[in-house]
What does this fold into?
Amino acid sequence: MMRQLVALTRRELLRIARNPQAIITSLMLPILYLLLFGQGFNFPYPSSDISGAPNYFSYFAAGMAGFVAVTATLFLGANVIFDRLFGVLKRNSATPASATSIFSSRLLAGSVQPIGLAFLVLGLAALLGHLGLAGLTVTASLGVVGAIEIVAAIIILSLMFASLFLAIGFSLQQPQTYFAVVNAINLPVLLTSAALYPFGRLPWWLKNIASYNPVTLAVEVIRLNLFAGSGSYYTYTAGVYLAGLGAWAVAMFVLAVLLARRALAPAK
Amino acid sequence: MTSTEAIQVTGLSKTYNQTVKAVDQIAFSVHPGEAFGFLGPNGAGKTTTVAMLTGLLRPTAGTAIVDGVDVFANPTLVKKKIGLVFQESTADSDLSGRENLELAAALFDVPRSETRARVDGLLERMQIGDAADRLTKTYSGGMRRRLELAVGIIHSPAVLFLDEPTLGLDPQGRAGFWRYVQELRKEHGMTVFLTTHYLDEADGICDRLAIIDHGHIVATGTPSELKDRVGGDVVTIRPAQPDPKVETVLAAVPGVLSVTPQDGAYRVKCPKGDALIPVLVEACYKAGFGLSGVSLKRPSLDEVFLEFTGREFREDEGASATDRAVRIGQVAQAFGRGRR
Ligand SMILES: Nc1ncnc2c1ncn2[C@@H]1O[C@H](COP(=O)(O)OP(=O)(O)OP(=O)(O)O)[C@@H](O)[C@H]1O
Ligand SMILES: [Mg+2]
It folds into this structure.
């Protein structure tokens, strides 16, 4: 079981490394948002509206670092569909490897790189400030615990969305359908999260929805650790947000394993 | 349920979507070490049968025991014991040939200490050593096929399933592929279950055959048993001048089973055509009839198929290799009575 999981994960990692377009593409949307949306909406909000961030762009940059976990796991489901089309899934099914290890290998391999990409987005956002544009300013002193919390938030969020996209990939047959479904999910996820909006300005109903959105939960952990004094604007500590995020990830993992097992079971 | 057979199938059926009867109540057994062939045209149900026997497809009814294990009760255990080469290419194109084999070795739990040697050995043997570290998306069709065979046998399976494994290979590639399979059988005593719609492959490779058509097994036996069931050889005699008396002369030759006229020639059915040709030719000359042609046709699986299904086999290759024409000149010279 362990050996199969390691071997399959290695295959997924090699495949991702050999097709870097998927990773590069996943950075395009967040970078575009940083260069256009973040610049255009960098209005002087009172810090109570933007959770104590020094300016809107810094607040927004933290949101994009979280959103990368969505865009960088999206291709995992597409990989499943193409592997089915090219017979790789069938070949795997003909081996003693369990459906759970076939699924988990894809989950593990796909949840690593979003961390690097999230820090790349934060680094780029900070760099923009030195190029005469609006840029990210970190006002808190980030300790080891804070860094670990940020990394944990991005990993858990990535695991959750990787599970979701894998679940969709294992359930669908056609690439076109997959991309249609995924597009129908992505924008609503972003627009019901606190990644873009000044949270303090939201109408009560959207605030309620956003409070449960997993992207919000991860982004709040990042903001709590990047902006000094932001704790006073939040109801909960980072641990609570991480726990909520964990619950999302576990629920999505269970659902995805069930769907993957059904997809890999002997055909009817 | 237990069985000493390598494969034991009873009442196996598959109906897709409650409408398409792809496989209908088939039963057969394959002895250990045997090469057993499933011969049938497109859509006969070959791939469906392989998918059921390898635990990839749930049957509608019936049982299958492979190497002592009930496939439908314990598919994972069966998968450990068998190898499978799919009809379509399934080599992982983002991996090199070596990585494909290493992955398969890990998935089938080949002892770590042996993996290296086995991978190297198979790469060498399948003649992909030079391309071992290239991504398989750069491989030719024949190389992919050989790699897929290597992947199928990396764990020394007790039973190897080959679903039309030589599809798309040139004649040389096909011959090479079967040479590897035969070597492996000799070395490991491996049982091979193969499907094909190449009659010559079925004839040359298989110890026993089942002919499958529209989901039914219409005949089972060794290739020569099946050919014997069709009847003997056919010698076609063409007289220089048409004359109905030729038929009487031929029918009187001892050993002739039947004579049927056909477009100015006569089809003589007999058990051993090659031995009878000189006798037939001599009888004609003695009766004063000159000949313009003699040919011998041994029964091929073509005729077997025709006999059991009432249809010609739709083969994508040229004429049957067992057809043999014997030129009158050679025969006449042997008798010292050339008419030239
Ligand atoms: N998933 C499926 N759903 C519905 N019908 C199917 C399915 N798979 C196969 N069939 C039908 O079942 C029949 C047998 O198909 P199968 O693939 O077993 O034939 P085959 O003997 O392997 O043919 P070929 O030589 O073309 O590979 C065909 O009529 C085919 O259309
Ligand atoms: Mg087939």
